[in-house]
NodQ bifunctional enzyme (Rhodopseudomonas palustris), 121 residues
Amino acid sequence: AEIASHLARNGHIAIVAAVSPAAEDRAAARRIAEDMFREIYIATPAEVCESRDPKGHYAKARAGALKGFTGIGNDYQPPIDNELTIDTSSRTVSEATEDIELMLARTGVLFDELVDLAANI
């Protein structure tokens, strides 16, 4: 959050992918980033995440080899004040990217004409 805040203060948009199962950790990141913080909740069902797991982390967690794995043996507290929710089991990458662009425009982060960010992925 500290580095992302520094980038934001200098005119950049920083997108940080963080597994933050505790609401208090996300609240701390929001306090650090202040008014430039936008929380996007990736609300994809656990079974879909597990089916996409190329490293087998879910299987290792279920077998007890990975302690404190989010979603298995470590509860996740869903956000209540996020700016956007995306379920990647029902949204394509292009659709999710468009959702993010629109949210950034709606919340005052993007001011110029929107471009197709998905085309750059």
